[in-house]
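Note to self: the last two entries modelled the partners one at a time, which told us nothing about the interface. This time every component goes in together.
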Amino acid sequence: MDKRFVYVDNSATTRISEPVLEAMMPYLTGGYGNASSIYSLGMDSARAILKSRETVAKALGAKTNEIYFTSGGSESDNWAIKCAADAMAPKGKKHLITTVFEHHAVLHTAQYLEKHGFEVTYIPVDEMGLVNPADIEKAIRPDTFLVSVMFANNEIGTIQPIAEIGKICREKKVWFHTDAVQAVGNVPINVAEMNIDLLSLSGHKIHAPKGVGALYMRTGINLPNLIHGGAQERSKRAGTENVASIVGLAKAIELATADIPAKQQRLSKIRNRIINELLKIPESRLNGDPVKRLCGNVNISFRGIEGESLLLSLDLAGIFASSGSACTSGSLDPSHVLLAIGLPHSTAHGSLRITLGEDNTEEDADYIIETVPKTVEKLRAMSPLWERILRDEDIDAE
Amino acid sequence: MIYSEKVMEHFANPRNVGEIENADGVGEVGNAKCGDIMKMYLKIDGGIITDVKFKTFGCGAAVATSSMATELIKGKPVEDALKLTNKAVVEALDGLPTVKLHCSVLAEQAIKAALTDYYKRQGIDPEPIVGKVPDREASCGI
Ligand SMILES: Cc1ncc(COP(=O)(O)O)c(C=O)c1O
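The predicted structure of the combined assembly is written out below.
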């Protein structure tokens, strides 16, 4: 088979789709007015932002005024968590509940708060990568100011029981934030029905540009600013609006949520085929729940090989994927998510994440199914660790 | 993170991969927990390294540094191999990202571990010649 271009890292980022770019173009060219200006060129921008806000709100089952545009998922997470802490600390509420397997935008923010006198409870996840709502309920205290649980995990794709957690938090009168960056467009979301108080989302995971996102803040919650300055975003988030990107985000979310069941059906079929075929490779395992997972997420560990080498080899074959190995995490430890579901370090190092998106086809799956086993075999042939696994040595005892 | 073309070339076409039957010295460094293991095989004849092979479990830089290190010592006197530094390996690869420098240290140690084994087999105390090679349980990212 010829070398191909198979991009299967859609949880890392996505390309800007044609309709999104088309919607943005007027604001990248002639429509450059500052939305705060009073003349028509400015008002056109202000109108585009308002319309975008309505679109995003509708996609989430929220009210228009509950949506604030930000620079992306990381900013939304920081805003929700740091500023909920700011708002509640004077009332003596200085306890945050989150989970061990959040994105670093949440985890590192929680760790920052710990350094500043807050207490954080990190709820564990089970070996399937799921949070038990009863654990959240038990952890809630009179001084808990926020519960933050991600909607869907970015590495292993597990989808959390968000509505159940939302119900518990509402009953206990604790604010509930969810990082829905990976869930938007893949799972139906209704913030009102799910009792979500704060929700983060990001544009570049759904075919909008990088550097744009939103925070949903339920009416009645009035977080202080993360970014101070001008009166943009009803004085809640300063900075001259990135009109084109906001318009792109709105178009992207409209398209991404138009027919989620159809997307789920198409992609989960491709996903399951890849999972079933790759699990035929000896000494491999699926990471994360097989059913409660994002329709495009495959995460498999191959013992005896290391993830970055696997990615570089796949890259040479034209496949773009990711891994949770230490080599790729930029730290000395493999992914905290894979360790949280109980994988030994050596197995976590050999993980491969394939995340399918709108553009992927059955032919891409064919190519992956043909290429990955050969690549794993090649790397195992040169791996001294694989020799030891074949000899049945306990490689994790070291 | 960016790898040099040289690193990618060695990763894509690693030199001297494999094992040597009846090797005169075999050394293994690194461990599974840290995610890098290198195993070196040396054939030594009259003080010359006549053949060298390696097997590596690890990231792209680990494969490339093993490959480059074997190239740098193949056909050379043992004394030259003893002097091989991780810096020389990095330079030969046109540099490595800072987070990957430990891979080059591992390559240097793998050769030293194989030479240690070589001297031991000769009944010679390797430590005064080779120095001390950290054992496998050493902490990650040395
Ligand atoms: C779950 C999750 N949260 C937050 C982020 C950060 O989003 P952004 O890149 O827009 O800052 C990401 C993406 O990397 C993510 O996957």
